[in-house]
Amino acid sequence: MKLIDILKQEYIKIPLFSTSKEEVVRELIDILTPFSIYENHDLVYSAIMAREAIMTTGVGKGVAIPHCKKNECKEFAIALGIHPQGVDYQSIDGKPAQIFFLLIGPETNPGMHIRLLSRISRLISKDMLREKLLSCSSASEAYHLIKTEEEKYFEIAS
Amino acid sequence: MELKKTRRHFQIQIFKLLQRIDLPEDFYMLFLAAIIGVFAGLGAYVLNLLVNFVHYLLYDSFLNITSVSWFSYVLLALFPAIGGLIVGLVIHFFASEAKGHGVPSVIEAIANRGGFIRPRVSFLTSLTAGTTIGSGGSAGKEGPIVQIGAAIGSTVGQLFNVSSERLKVLVGAGAGAGLAAVFNAPVTGVLFALEVILVDFSINAFTPIIFATVISTTISHYLIGSSPLLKVPVYYLESFYEYPLYILMGIVGGFVAVFFTRVLYATEDFFNKHRNLPEFLKPALGGLLMGIIALKFPELYGFDDHAIHSALLARTEIWILFLLMILKIFATSLSLGSGGSGGLFTPSLFIGATFGAFFGGLMNYIFPSATAPATAYALVGMGIMVAGTTHATISALVLIFEITSDYQIILPLMLGTIVATLTARLIMRENIYTMKIALSGEYVFKGRNMTLLQSIPINQHIQKKYDKIPEHMPFSKILKLFRESEHSAFPVLDKRNNLVGVIWLRDIRPYLFDEHLYHLLIAKDIAQEEFMTIHPDQSLADVLRMFDLTDAELLPVTERRNPRRIIGVIYRDELMRWYRKAPLLHPELYSK
């Protein structure tokens, strides 16, 4: 499995419009709502915010990776949103976050949850990719950018 | 005292030598295994000599004294009884372990006494088994030689003061080496030691057992001869339609095996219940009854393997085969159930060969064009019966190869032995060896005394002080904990000290050096939220079984009414350390 198997082009939104952390999370979840990955939008939102309350997933360098494990989610899915202006996400470096990867999935497979987070953070740690993503103006552009970048990596063990 | 000091000095010198020349530690065990192999090979030879000597004394010399036919008839019936009387006296006065069919007492020594067997057992078992079989008792040499070899292994281990773990391996090496030598079947010897005696297939156990077996078999080749035990024509599968027949044969064979086991223990029970009969007379009575049966069917004598040959060569009528099968079950039960000393492999081979030939004969009659000769079924029948009685599938099928040198019948043999083992296990949990231990009120599984473990509560093994991980702990701190702690699994608790998961080293191993995750993950993200727990009212047997099942390093102990409320944890390593030392530190638990 690769990230792009669960990060479909329809799950990418450029640009995001929200102005606060809470709104960004809602906006990201809304991207996935039409695809029947979960039934109760609020449950997923509160799980994400509960996780953020423990420790921020704003990992710095303009990136945030909000995530949760919840059996409400039938399968793993990733949404990507780009916010060119940036939002205050209480990131560890104090800077606003511009690139958001939202990862949701069931509780039953923590191993996969970690593997996916590891792949996302590894990809996005590259300065070049972050810069290119920020200059993308469409979902299709961002999707192909990630697809090309991920070709250098092995499949993620399922 | 002086001798003990010299021995210890010798042992230390060997260790120093091995360390100096940088040889793997296995070499020390191989050295001990070599000694055991030599003595086990010689033990098999001596047992053979004893059987032949007693047989010669009674059936060749003594019988020729009289020419009156009715008197020689009476003598024939009396011989197994005379053997029984001698055996009864030896057992009564010197060693009760030398009674019966040998293997259960070895399994029991492994499970309860860390492999400790009294040195005298090897000598006395040779005597009692040689007398029982030589005098005509319906039993084989393999049970006693397993016991003799095990006693040799244990004695060598005790002399060299090895740990309990190594002592068990040496007992296995002796048992395997003995069996291999007496049957001229080295691979079976190795597999039997691993599958039945030790129930351990680890590489540490393999090497010494193989080495001892090679040496003992070589010695027995030189002293006894190297031809296969049974010479049979080449057999084959006539048609693929025979496979269902072999499955059916495995099922029926499983039932016959259980019947044999039940009759054996019912007979033993019968003799045990009659307390007014002196103990030492019981094997004589068993021998007498067996002798009377054997008057009409001399094939039943333990030293006689003509019937197996006849069954394998289709020289006997089908109804006689059936009768011989039933009579052998009763004859063996009388010989061994009354307290005589001997093994069950050869009787199982006999029962299996006659059963197989009978079954094959019937199939030839019903499906004449689609079935191989009945003799092919006799061959598979032997494997089926050994597997059905011992539940040792691999040993059973390899044994048939080795004693017949016939590879052609492998597929039906594999199928038959597996079906027979499954069938016998479905009907009865115990095999013919562990049944004896079970009847004394103990259930032994995988070399562990489960009855004892079921009676020990887990309270004293619950660690109340243990390293725990709060669910909010960041990944970087979790890694620090893993590096500093001696444990490789931790329970994860929430703010109210409720158990929410467990983190295993094996789950996070791939991410130990993934710096990108250090600030992204917390304990809750990586904890396994579905895991097994144990409750304080459960027993050690439950805990060990659960550790086996889950291969976990740790089990959280939680309240039965609230499975999130953690009381403590049990670490597998610590429990196994205690279990290995328990027979030494807590002998009161093991004494009945």
In short:
The complex is a heterodimer of chains A (158) and B (592). Chain A is α/β, with parallel strands linked by helices and 158 residues long.
Structure description:
The complex is a heterodimer of chains A (158) and B (592). Chain A is globular. The model of chain A has no long low-confidence stretch (mean pLDDT 92). The longest helix of chain A has 15 residues, at 110-124. Chain A is built from 6 helices and 6 strands; from the N terminus they run αβααβββββααα. With 158 residues, chain A is an alpha/beta fold. Chain A has a single domain, classed as Mannitol-specific EII, Chain A (3-Layer(aba) Sandwich), CATH 3.40.930. In chain A, strands 1, 2, 3, 4, 5 and 6 form a 6-stranded mixed sheet that branches. Chain B is mainly alpha-helical and 592 residues long. Chain B has 3 domains: 2-223, Clc chloride channel (Orthogonal Bundle), CATH 1.10.3080.10; 242-450, Clc chloride channel (Orthogonal Bundle); 457-590, CBS-domain (Roll). Chain B has helices at 2-20, 26-61, 69-93, 103-112, 120-134, 142-159, 164-183, 186-198, 203-223, 242-273, 282-296, 306-313, 318-337, 345-366, 374-390, 393-404, 410-427, 434-439, 450-455, 475-484, 505-508, 523-526, 540-550, 572-585, 587-590; strands spanning 444-445, 448-449, 469-470, 489-493, 499-504, 554-558, 566-571. Chain B has a 3-stranded mixed sheet with strand order 3-4-5. In chain B, strands 1-2 form a two-stranded antiparallel sheet. In chain B, strands 6-7 form a two-stranded antiparallel ribbon. In chain B, strand 4 (489-493) and strand 5 form a beta hairpin. In chain B, 51% of the residues are buried. The mean pLDDT of chain B is 83. Classes of the chains: A alpha/beta (158), B mainly alpha (592).
Mean of pLDDT of chain A: 92
What class would the helix/strand composition of chain B place it in? mainly alpha
Number of separate helices of chain A: 6
Helix content of chain B: 55-70%
Give the neighbour order of strands across the main sheet of chain B: 3-4-5
Percentage of residues in DSSP E strands of chain B: under 5%
- CATH fold label of the largest domain in chain B: Clc chloride channel
Shape verdict of chain A:
globular
How helix-rich are the residues of chain A, as a percent range?
Answer: 40-55%
Biggest pleated-sheet summary of chain A: 6 strands, mixed
Count every helix of chain B, treating DSSP H or I runs of 4 or more residues as helices.
Answer: 25
Give a count of the beta strands of chain B, DSSP E runs of length 2 or more. Answer: 7
The pLDDT mean of chain B sits at: 83
Q: How many distinct folded domains of chain A? A: 1
CATH structural architecture of chain A:
3-Layer(aba) Sandwich
Broad structural category of chain A: alpha/beta
Query: CATH homologous superfamily name of the largest domain in chain B?
Result: Clc chloride channel
Compressed to H and E, one letter per element, the order of chain A equals HEHHEEEEEHHH
Low-confidence runs of at least 5 consecutive residues of chain A: none
Tell me the CATH topology of chain A.
Answer: Mannitol-specific EII, Chain A
